[in-house]
Amino acid sequence: MDTLHWMQAEVLDGRAIPMLEAEAVVRSLSIAMHADAGMLLPLLQIKEFDQYTTTHSLNVSVLAMALAEALSLSPREVRAIGVSGLLHDVGKTRIPLEVLTKPGRLSDEERQIMNRHPSDGARMILQSDADLELAAVVAYEHHIMLDGGGYPTLHYCRGCSFGSRLVHVCDVYDALSTKRPYRDAWPQEQTLAYLAERAGTEFDPFLVDAFTRLMRDGHARVQRLDALGAPPPAP
Q1: DSSP letters along 153-219, please?
Q2: 3-class DSSP state for residue 137?
Q3: How is domain 2-217 classified at the architecture level of CATH?
Q4: Cα 161 from Cα 134, distance rounded (Å)
């Protein structure tokens, strides 16, 4: 967490994303994820309100890597997904803290500020390192729904990348599973039911099914996908 806090400060100050540290965090999370065969995921229990963005980013990275592994992606692809999950909310470092942690409903102006974080994050990543194309794409697309809704608003109808659709599922799962100042954490079954209800409109049904199997059974029971950019197999 200290390393990620420092990384966020570096990016906020306009310096390059420290890739060595980012990859070290992802490797550490991967090692922790595999340390105990009886524990599916080391979801962090330190979700304090003032540290939400940091712990949420760590959790999404772990969840995304676990799902990518369950889908039999290559180690290189799993690491790329892990880094993308770690950096997906980096644009929130530009949001004023009073807006980011506001306990009540956001005003229209505050919502506009909040909704800029995908574009800001993608721009920050692209300006930092040309080798982080997937992370930049995921940062930009992780709030775009399967049917084209969400934000940023697309100028023309197109599908989001496989990595973005994967991180989107993990992002919403962890967000709903976390206690926030304005609501209690949802139990797992309620959160999984929400994902299932919105599969086909907000979420990729293939990924929701794989993620649900992973969370309930410890594995997804699906065949390998050829690449991050490949579409999911037909149901």
Answers
A1: PPSS--PPPHHHHHHHHHHHHHHHTS-BTTBPPPPHHHHHHHHHHTBTTTB-HHHHHHHHHHHHHSS
A2: helix
A3: Orthogonal Bundle (1.10)
A4: 9
Total-model pTM: 0.81
Q: Which residue(s) pair with 199 in the sheet? A: 203
Instruction: List the single range of 85-99, 113-127, 161-175, 219-233 with lowest mean pLDDT.
Output: 219-233
Judge contact between 70 and 210, C-beta under 8 A: yes
**Residue range 206-232, pLDDT digits in tens:** 999 999 999 988 655 444 444 444 444
**What are the distances in angstroms from CA 223 to CA 16, 45, 203, 232?**
37, 32, 19, 10
Q: At 221, is the secondary structure helix, strand, or coil?
A: coil
